[in-house]
Amino acid sequence: LVSVTTGSRGRAADSMAELNELARSADVLVLDTIIQLRKQIHPRFILGRGKLMEIMLRSLRLGANLLIFDQELSPSQIRSVTDHTDLRVIDRTQLILDIFARRALSREGKLQIEMAQLKYMLPRLSTRDDALSRLTGGIGARGPGETKLEVDRRRINDRIARLARELKAVGRERYHRRSLRRKRDVPVISLVGYTNAGKSTLLNTLTRSHVQARDLLFATLDPTSRRLRFPQDMEVIVTDTVGFIRNLPADLLKAFESTLEELYEAALLVHVIDVSNPAYVEQIEVVESLLRDLELDRIPCLRVFNKIDLVDEEARAGISRMDGVGICALDPAGLTPFLQQAQAMLRA
User: Fold this and answer.
1) Phi-psi region for residue 72, left (φ > 0), alpha (ψ -120 to 50) or beta?
2) How many domains does the chain have?
3) Among 27, 134, 187, 310, which is most buried by a count of CB atoms within 10 Å?
């Protein structure tokens, strides 16, 4: 794992720890991590040529076959690095896309991921083709024909257009389901938060469900809805959505637009926060910034500080002064204050 930064070492170390978790979620065995602090990012190699050679030698010694950069690489940077090594080179965005591709179960999820992957791939199609002179078309076709690269680009653009049409159709089905829900006048509570904060665990405990909840980043991709009856005779629908992460790829956010539309129907957003994570304050800001970008900050939001059982008394005292409710998502008995607060906010 390689990180090149112009910022502080502490922030780079936090980001590297998250990249390590992403790699674990993708079943990648991490052999080594390297952080390089630079005054400015090298426009061609991202890191210095000397450091690149050092990484190549170290990877040979360790028997590594993959380099993962914490920063998003431009097409020219990927080409410059791969010119100097036989290792496969990917960046953080590609790793996230790969995790999403593995986890998508629904037809809609698979369509969304494929679209995001194709949009990511399009500008990165290599112009270094040993067969650039090979033309398809030729005799009997008008004009000089197309290079293999042009054919690949056209095929990808055609596929993106087709996926967009299919997603539109699926989006209409989802809208129809939501309109039926509105007619029944059942309020929706949407669980939002950083990836691996415990949203699926909370949904399972609240509704006695068995949605997959694992200690992995992006264990949940497809939205799941369950009915819940509050203690004071009120029925709601609780929806679990995909988790957020810092530097979430824009194409991925765009591809998941129809899934995130579920959030706009919510009467209440429940922001689940993993307080056992040392970077939880920064994670709160990442989630709230994304909610503002998606114009979801107009919907009432209840902060829920999860995994409160894993922090010490001093940390609990600090959390108690913040606006929200402390819970352990695994403990049904301790969820009463949360349910009371959520019900009060829905009735307000």
Assistant:
1) beta
2) 2
3) 187
> What is the domain range of residue 30?
2-98
- Which pLDDT belongs to residue 130? 38
| Full strand arrangement of the beta sheet holding 88-91 | 34-37, 2-5, 66-69, 88-91
In a domain, residue 223? The reply is: yes
Q: Which of 61, 60, 53 is nearest to 36 (CA)?
A: 53
Structure tokens at 116: 């995001």
Instruction: Provide the angle, in degrees to the nearest 10, between the axes of the packed helices 257-264 and 148-183.
Output: 20
Query: What does residue 291 show for φ and ψ, rounded to 5 degrees?
Result: -65, -40
3-state DSSP call for residue 128? Answer: coil
Residue 258 included in any domain: yes
Q: Which of 78, 98, 118 is the last residue of a domain?
A: 98
- What is the β-pairing status of strands 188-193 and 146-147? unpaired
Return the closest-CA partner of residue 222 out of 93, 98, 103: 103
DSSP per residue, 204-231: HHHHT------SSTT---S-EEEEEEET
204 plus 90 within the same structural domain: no
- Mean pLDDT within 138-154: 61
Is residue 128 one of the residues assigned to a domain? no
Is 268 inside a domain boundary?
yes
